[in-house]
Amino acid sequence: MKAEIIAVGTELLLGDILNTNAQFLSRELAALGITVHYQTVVGDNAARLESVVRQARERSDLLVFSGGLGPTEDDLTKQTVARAYGDELRFDEEELAKIQHFFSAWGRTMPQNNRRQAYVPVHGRKIENHNGTAPGMIFEDTREKGKYAVLLPGPPKELQPMFLETVRPWLAGMSDCVLHSLTLRVMGIGESHLQEKIGSLLENENPTAALYAKTSEVVVRITARAQDLQTAEEMCRNYAALFYDALGDHIYTQTEDSLEETVVHTLMEKGKTVATAESCTGGLLSARLTSVPGSSEVFQYGACTYANEVKERVLGVKHETLEQFGAVSPQVAAEMAEGVRRAAGADFGVGITGIAGPGGGTPEKPVGLVYVAAAGETFTYVQKLVVTGRTREMVRLSSTQHALDMIRRLALDLAQPGCRAFAAGTPANFTGDTPVKDV
Amino acid sequence: MKAEIIAVGTELLLGDILNTNAQFLSRELAALGITVHYQTVVGDNAARLESVVRQARERSDLLVFSGGLGPTEDDLTKQTVARAYGDELRFDEEELAKIQHFFSAWGRTMPQNNRRQAYVPVHGRKIENHNGTAPGMIFEDTREKGKYAVLLPGPPKELQPMFLETVRPWLAGMSDCVLHSLTLRVMGIGESHLQEKIGSLLENENPTAALYAKTSEVVVRITARAQDLQTAEEMCRNYAALFYDALGDHIYTQTEDSLEETVVHTLMEKGKTVATAESCTGGLLSARLTSVPGSSEVFQYGACTYANEVKERVLGVKHETLEQFGAVSPQVAAEMAEGVRRAAGADFGVGITGIAGPGGGTPEKPVGLVYVAAAGETFTYVQKLVVTGRTREMVRLSSTQHALDMIRRLALDLAQPGCRAFAAGTPANFTGDTPVKDV
Asked: What number does CATH give the domain A259-429?
């Protein structure tokens, strides 16, 4: 079944509101195995609305409308759709009584305009609206079987329950297959490199797999179509196994959890705690960790040490280390991580130091150079990132992303790829640099 | 000029992402006096994309595309548009060098796929992308003057600066009248109260004024239309004066600066420094302050003290104060602010303690209860927020927003409305509660 979504409303065309209905409806239709080919937004203009409706009816089996069911004269959706689908509207006394009741419940009398909302299809069916005055409706083309139009009011608080209570069951009853999706989140491999590694897996027909790049992570969505849910789930699981073969522990979750959620939940499961020491990220790492409900169980202390003097005093970074290697160095990152781990009495400590830009870069230490260190009981790991051509915010976000992944790997006792490791307490002894991490 | 907006991307049709680009572009075009008649979303499908482009070109003068400029084979937008507008693509060595540089700067080699992004129009022009590899482009129909298509990449962080830096000035240059906007940012008055205070000012025809509510602040955008820029600017300034009369120092800027930018720049001008102590916001305040380039001049230390024991040890909050009033109390907020001010040797100190939720609330101290304190040399101010019916993230963001405003007011020596004030060093002496702030 081919579908399209049509939103009617000038406020969308002016950018006054976001078209969240299109996202909601698209997601719901996809879950039902119905393919959405187009989303359209058109204003409250008779001629343009008419042409949009006629074209959409021509090329698609199911149109889902949001908006344009209001009480004012410029709300034309149902008249226009009724004409296109060979139906007519009739005045419905029962609907009028409901609308009047809606107003009297607020101690108000119904404006005359709202009578318009009591017109419903002669052949089509009504959809009850428990949260507003405009009923929804479903038209089936009277001259061509299998062509449908669903009309829903614009406010999401009305549209969403109406879709879930009435439209979804009706569509599910017509469908002959089920769609199931599974999401893998991948950290530590760039999108194009990932594509080279698993490119062939992306060309399958069923299940399908698609990549979505985010800042310093990639989301893989696997979607299977089958006769029943159990089969679709199994197909997804089997296909996901191929991705695990190729990507291993770069996949940090197969849930909807973000990396910070994954890290906090992993620490909870393992009964471990973490403390953070941040320079260029200025608290962004601790803010991400503490955005997760319940994080106080695994996180008690974060220090945002912007000045060198504070790094020494609060974290115990050695004056000589700062002098010898500079604040942006693997040695200082490591001492920050070890220092905050000690100060907090935590299982793991993280240190981040770098140059977020746009100023402050030198040829030797350019903007985007960041060292991230993670300290455990016996080993401290440091990685070097060079996040160039990005904004300050992207450098900072990417740095915290890599820091979170290092905590995850510490908590799960996994390898730390691309990192330099050394025995705890010895950072100032190591010289030279660490290899640049693939960001 | 009639325009339409076309987003290309299967992830939109699946409902995986919200079409925020359509809102951004619609709003920007409206501000330029350009009417948007349609918004369309279509997938990465050659035939459907082709038909959408041809129809849109037929009925509109300006098409603005987002997405479909990626490096993979299914990204077809520019080939399709070039054909419809009678242009061709040529391989651009300079663009290739830029893309290669983008990769080599990360120490990586460019995947072969990305060569596709170096194709640009023969007749049209390129739009520079400072935040990604895909250049944008502007086509003018080679057979029909005055028909344009603008192509921008999908990620908002790339699209928005490209539109503002290149497309907006280009469109403004084609218009016969000049539009000028001035933005006032208002902190500390809720949207409905604001509307009561300045409602009549919102009904003017030229200049127009529109309100946009954000988390704990409201943006007023004044837009004037005139024959020349100077006149439009003066109209905006005069109209803004009426808002200043009504709202006074609740207006924190008339630039595009965010509250954190305003605070950092104000501190720089006044030569003052600030230190932060955060509990429920977990570093979000310091992250916001340090997101501003150059913030190291005014910020050296932030402590994220989640655990009580850490509040005592790191900030010197008294054990008795925690025992007597609890961690979420005006007294502890004040001691945190004074403690971190002392520890950092800063001019101002901020303390935030509260219950961000979703768990941890009690009837006496519900989720959303937050105390924010700001300490100066002689006085410490505390405000009580009750941010109810919101998510954890909104409670945290709102708290930092109010903290930033208190720093601004300290730096500018302004009153602290809705706050309780007491002499520095005496927080544990004051009992009772502070009035709830209008959030």
From this structure: 3.90.950.20
Residues 311-330 of B with CB under 8 A from A: 314
Which residues are CB-contacts of B349 (< 8 A; sequence separation ≥ 6)? B274, B275, B276, B277, B336, B337, B338, B339, B340, B341, B342, B374, B375
Residues lower than pLDDT 70 in chain B: 73-74, 106-107, 190-192, 388-390, 427-439
CATH homologous superfamily, domain A2-174 = MoaB/Mog-like domain (3.40.980.10)
Q: Which of B72, B282, B293 is nearest residue A286 as measured by Cβ atoms?
A: B282
Contact B114 A37 (CB under 8 A): no
Q: Domain B259-437 maps to which CATH number in 3.10.310.10, 3.20.20.80, 3.30.160.140, 3.90.950.20? A: 3.90.950.20
What value does the CA radius of gyration of chain B take, rounded to a whole number of Å?
A: 26
Asked if A305's CB is within 8 angstroms of B301's CB, the reply is yes
Whether residue A206 lies within 8 A of chain B, CB to CB, comes out as no
pLDDT in tens, A45-92: 889 999 999 999 999 999 999 998 988 766 789 999 999 999 999 999
pLDDT tens by residue, A321-348: 999 999 999 999 999 999 999 999 999 9
Q: Does B40 touch chain A (CB under 8 A)?
A: yes
Percentage with pLDDT > 90 across chain B: 65
Domain segments of chain A: what residues? Answer: 2-174, 178-253, 259-429
| Window B:344-383, CB contacts with A under 8 Å | 344, 357-359
Q: Which residues from chain B sit within 8 angstroms of residue A295, using beta carbons?
A: 282, 306
What ipTM was predicted for this assembly?
Answer: 0.74
Same CATH fold assignment for domains B178-253 and B259-437: no
**Per-residue DSSP letters for A65-117?**
EES--SSSTT--HHHHHHHHTT--EEE-HHHHHHHHHHHHHTT-PPPGGGGGG
Distance from CA of A317 to the nearest CA of B (A): 15
Average pLDDT, chain B: 90
Q: B290 at the A interface (CB within 8 A)?
A: yes
What dotted CATH number matches A178-253?
A: 3.30.70.2860
Task: Report pLDDT digits (tens) over A261-303.
Answer: 999 999 999 999 999 999 999 999 999 999 999 999 999 999 9
Contact B396 A28 (CB under 8 A): no
